Amino acid sequence: MTLLHPVNHFLPASVAPAINPYQLGATLYMPATRQDIWQIISQQKLAEIDSIVICLEDAVSESEIPAALANLKQLLATWTQQGQTHGFGDESRQISPRVSRPMVFIRPRNALMLTELASWQEIGLVDGFVLPKIDMQSLADWRLACQALPSTQLLMPTLETRLIFNPIHNQELALAFSEGFSQSILALRIGGNDLFASLRLRRPSDVTIYQTPVGILIYQLIACFVPQGFYLTAPVFEYLDKPALFAEELRQDVALGLVGKTIIHPEQIAAVKHAFYVNDIERSQATAILAADAKAVFKQDNSMLEPATHRAWATSVMLRANV
């Protein structure tokens, strides 16, 4: 398993990853039964969206599964036809910065469904898969299913079961993720609502997630998984009538180094993009830190900059700037 990130125009080649996790940006989940998914992929609708997840899990009821799978198969057939006719194929995800379409992921219901999807001829068109409710108990099934996927596709396991509250379990899971897949893990998704459910709670509407027990857990997940090389995404904010609170939570998401935000409505896209924007001071400082001739310690913008300890931060800033 490798951690990939796109060619980056702001970073030296020695530190530029291959696929930039900040490309996830605002990630919109949509049920696989939705009839306008192709219009969104081809940017006829929601041209500003960064990434989408076509959901066959929580967003689809058991009775809807056959229709959802049929709709997804038809979507891939349309995608194939459009690619042959207009040159709109899977090569677009190799462009950096990616401008031709949002990143596209599928969230299967379980590992058995992923095995079925892997057998579809056109499945290589999508960028990868979100693996729901993954933990040490289900990891073996997901690893087996992923063996049938192209090695070029990306994985986003979701941390959202009760076992994720166990720090010892998470240490084992981080090691297992590092060794368990031939595909690259683009990011780990934090499933906020499922984690609240494990505590018999719902996210409150008057504070950010970081003022809740799940917020405490997010700090623990960062401490466990980021030092092992993983990136994490921020969970959904489900209240559309709380823009100030949403903006404050986004500020904290970015400050903690999370690489994207799950959204529930297109109205949230602009706020996510604004929050992840790199200002001139951040860009200037990061550029100075990464410069080949940077001094060991120097002052800039009334800050002490020390490349030996600030290089990782500067690299993340430039990854954001590239997007």
TrEMBL record:
Cofactor: Mg(2+)
InterPro entries in UniProt: C-C_Bond_Lyase-like (IPR039480), Citrate_lyase_beta/mcl1/mcl2 (IPR011206), Pyrv/PenolPyrv_kinase-like_dom (IPR015813), Pyrv_kinase-like_dom_sf (IPR040442)
A Pfam cross-reference name: C-C_Bond_Lyase
SUPFAM superfamilies: Phosphoenolpyruvate/pyruvate domain (SSF51621)
Entry keyword set: Magnesium, Metal-binding
The keyword Protein transport is assigned to this record: no
Family classification: Belongs to the HpcH/HpaI aldolase family.
Designated name of the protein: Citrate lyase subunit beta-like protein
